[in-house]
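Q: Got a minute? One more chain.
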Amino acid sequence: MRLPSFLSGFSTVFSPKGCPGCGSPYSETLDGPCPWCRLHFPSALTPVQQQRLEALLGQRFPLESALALAKFCLGGRVQKMLHEIKYLGGYRLAWGLGRALGRGCEALGLAPGCLVPVPLHPNKLKKRGYNQSEWIARGMESVLSWSVDTELLHRVHEAGSQTRLTVQERQRNALQQFSCTRDADPCVHWILVDDMITTGATLESCARALREAGAVRISAVSLACEIDL
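A: Always. Here it is, folded:
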């Protein structure tokens, strides 16, 4: 499969620990995955899948647009990259993949707006040291020059690891997890940014909080999507 041009954002952040996709070492000063993984990126969503994702999320909450960079496959390269981003200090990789996501937004004509990273609970943020969704948004910002707002959305309840939870359990946990710290300008296009869309419940909870604060135009973007498309 020919690599989409907007995935050239993979070459924008240095990963000193070797390729997060296949684990092989390489000596070039490159960001993120090695040249082989970038060339054989296995799961970029097709335009039809992007439309299905938008339709499925649109059934959960009113939204203007939706975009995911890749399809999540258990045990695949995308999972390895997400694991590095979340658990191995891979904030620079998150920034580089954010640049790729930003180019995807450009390619699909996503309307400019304000990027809102899905927040971590303060306890988890303190433990991890960074919010991977914020670094993704910062990477997007470097490509798109859109603003990033890390203060508007607040996580009210701390959620533990959800990797072993069922879909129904994840959905219950996501309800009422977020609130807004101030009113959301109804004239602004608010764009939620997350690392992965699993069921859509987290984004639904975020969108609910934004709408209660006054937001009208809401979109959602993510590096990967686990929803069956």
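A: The chain is about 40% helix and 15% strand.
Q: Perfect, thanks.
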